[in-house]
Specification:
Layout (H helix, E strand, L loop, with lengths): L2 E3 L8 H13 L8 H4 L2 H17 L2 E5 L6 H10 L6 E5 L5 H11 L4 E7 L5 H18 L7 E5 L5 H9 L2 E4 L13 H9 L4 H15 L8 H14 L4 E6 L5 H15 L7 E6 L7 H7 L4 E8 L27 H18 L4 E6 L4 H21 L11 H11 L5
Helix pairs in contact: 1-14, 3-8, 4-8, 4-11, 9-14, 10-14, 11-14
The structure holds 5-phosphoarabinonic acid.
Length: about 400
C-alpha cells in the first residue's frame, strides 16, 4: 500500500473528487480503472502459454514498441531483475541506427522471437523496426518466421492487426478502453513480463490490493487523491515542475514510465506540471545543486521503500582506517541510503522545495503492481482536477505531421 507523507494536511475537495470518480467509472477510456479486478483470466492463461513457448524456443524476445507500448513493462523488468532463460531486448523506441545495431549485435545468431506492440498499429518507429526484425526472422527461419511473431494490437483494426491476421501471427489485444500509457497491466505489459520471468499474477494481485485499498478509503484519507490534490494546489501556486526522486537506480525506467504517464496525460491546453525525475544519490552530485539552490518553481515527490534485507551489505571494518570510514563499520549500506534520503528531504525542504514522500514496502512484484495502479489513478484524477482530458494526446501529432510531410508520405 502506498502512503503519502506531506508537510501539511492536504484538503481534499470531496464533492469535486467524487464527481471525478463517478465520471471515471463511466469513461470509455478508463478500462484500466477496474482492470486489476476484472482482468480476463482466460487471456492471462494464453499469455502465460505463449510466454512458455517463447522461453522454450528463444534466447531473446525482441519487444518492439514505443511510449506506452514499451515503458511500463521495461520499468517492471528493470526494477525486479527477474530470472528467465529468455532475455528481453527493446527496439522501435527511437529511430537511431546505433540503437538498432546494438540489438542486432546482441542477438547475433541466437534464437529469438518478436513481440511487436502497437495499439494503433501504425506508429512509425515500431513499424520500421518491425520490418528489420521480420527480415531477420525470415532469413533465419524461412516459412516458419511467422510462428515467432506475437502482435499485440487493436482487436479489429490497424495495419498491424491486418498484417497479423493475414500472416497468421499470434495475436493479443490492447483493449479499446485502455490507452497506451495505462496499458501495462494488459497484454501490452503482461506478455513481455511473463517471458522475462515476472510472476504476472502476483503483479496483478499487487495492483488489485491497491485498487481495493484506494477504492474503500474515505476520500479525504485516500493517498492517491491527496497526492493528486497536492499537485493541483502546487500548480496553482506556480510550482510547475515536479521531480520524482528515488534512491534506487533500478527504478530509472519506472520514472520514465511515470514521466510519460503524467506528461502525456496532463500537458495540454498550455497547462500542466512538467514531470522530471532524478535518481539519488547519483543525481545529488549533478541536479542536486539546482534542486537545493536553483529557481523555486519545483516540488519533489520522493518514492521511499523499505530496505530489502536480502540484498544488503555490511560496511567492513578496516585495520588501518586510511579512508576514515570506520565510523560506518558494521552499518548496513541500506542504512546509509536511508540516511541520505532523510538528509536530502530535510535539506530540500529547508531550501524551499515542497517535498512529498510516497512510502511503501520493499521493492517487489506486488509493490510494483501497487505503484502502477496508484499512479494511474492519481494521474487521471490530477488531470481532471486541472480540467484536461487524461486520455488523449493531441500534441503528439504535430511532429508526426511535419515528419511525414518531410518524408513525402502520401497524403501529407
Ligand atoms: O500513451 C500513449 O497513448 C502513447 O504513448 C502510445 O503508447 C505511443 O504513442 C505508441 O502508440 P501505439 O501503441 O499506437 O504504437
Amino acid at each position: 500500500m502506498i502512503r503519502l507523507r506531506a508537510e501539511y494536511k492536504i484538503k481534499v475537495d470531496e464533492p469535486r473528487v467524487q464527481t471525478i470518480l463517478d465520471e471515471l467509472r463511466q469513461d470509455p477510456m478508463a478500462g484500466w480503472f477496474m482492470l486489476p479486478e476484472t482482468y480476463d483470466r482466460a487471456e492471462l492463461k494464453s499469455i502465460q502459454a505463449a510466454a512458455q513457448k517463447i522461453q522454450q524456443n528463444s534466447e531473446y524476445l525482441v519487444c518492439i514498441g514505443i511510449g506506452g507500448s514499451y515503458l511500463g513493462h521495461r520499468a517492471v523488468i528493470e526494477a525486479l531483475r527477474p530470472a528467465s532463460s529468455t532475455k528481453v531486448l527493446y527496439a522501435g523506441n527511437s529511430l537511431s541506427p546505433f540503437e538498432l545495431q546494438k540489438v542486432f549485435d546482441e542477438l547475433g545468431d541466437a534464437d529469438f522471437s518478436v513481440n511487436v506492440i502497437s495499439k494503433s498499429g501504425t506508429t512509425t518507429e515500431p513499424a520500421v523496426a518491425f520490418r528489420f526484425f521480420k527480415e531477420k526472422l525470415i532469413q533465419k527461419y524461412g516459412a516458419k518466421a511467422a510462428e515467432r511473431i506475437y502482435a499485440t494490437t487493436d482487436e479489429n483494426r490497424g495495419a498491424l492487426h491486418d498484417e497479423a491476421v493475414q500472416e497468421g501471427y499470434a495475436r493479443f489485444v490492447v483493449p479499446d478502453n485502455i490507452g497506451g500509457r495505462y496499458s501495462v497491466l494488459s497484454a501490452v505489459g503482461l506478455l513481455p513480463l511473463a517471458v522475462a520471468g515476472v510472476d504476472v499474477e502476483a503483479l496483478l494481485a499487487g495492483a488489485a490490493i491497491e485498487y481495493n485499498y484506494l477504492n474503500t478509503l474515505p476520500l479525504a484519507q485516500n493517498s492517491a487523491i491527496e497526492y493528486a490534490t497536492a499537485r493541483a494546489d502546487l500548480l496553482q501556486r506556480d510550482y510547475d515542475v515536479e521531480v520524482l526522486a528515488c534512491f534506487e537506480p533500478r527504478l530509472h525506467y519506472f520514472a520514465e514510465w511515470w514521466k510519460q504517464l503524467f506528461g502525456e496525460s496532463e500537458g495540454k491546453q498550455h497547462q500542466g506540471i512538467f514531470p522530471a525525475s532524478v535518481i539519488y544519490t547519483t543525481d545529488l552530485h549533478s541536479l542536486g545543486q539546482y534542486l537545493q539552490d536553483g529557481r523555486r518553481n519545483i516540488f519533489e515527490t520522493v518514492l521511499s521503500f523499505d530496505p530489502d534485507p536480502e540484498t544488503d551489505f555490511i560496511i567492513p571494518e578496516s585495520a588501518q582506517n586510511l579512508d576514515g570510514l570506520n565510523y560506518l563499520a558494521g552499518k548496513k549500506l541500506s542504512y546509509l541510503n536511508q540516511t541520505a534520503e532523510a538528509a536530502t528531504i530535510s535539506a530540500h525542504r529547508a531550501g524551499g522545495i515542497p517535498v512529498y514522500q510516497l512510502m511503501t514496502d520493499k521493492i517487489d512484484i506486488r509493490t510494483m503492481g501497487a505503484l502502477i495502479y496508484f499512479f494511474e489513478l492519481s494521474c487521471a484524477i490530477s488531470a481532471k482536477l486541472s480540467g484536461v482530458n487524461p486520455f488523449n494526446q493531441p500534441g503528439v501529432e504535430a511532429y508526426k505531421n511535419n515528419m511525414f510531410h518531410l518524408l513525402g508520405k502520401p497524403g501529407f
